[in-house]
Amino acid sequence: MTGRLTAPLRRVLAEAEDVTGRLSGTEAQLETLARHGLAFRHARPPRAYFLTPAGHRLRQELLTAAPPPTARAAATPGGVFTARTGAESEPVADGPARLREVHSAWQGLVELRRMTNPDGSTDRPCAWERGHLVQAAALALEAGDCLPGVAGDGGYVVADTPQPDAVEIRSGGEEAELASYADVLAKAGWHVGEHRARGRGRVLLASPRRV
Question: Per its UniProt entry, which superkingdom is the organism in (predicted)?
Answer without folding.
Answer: Bacteria
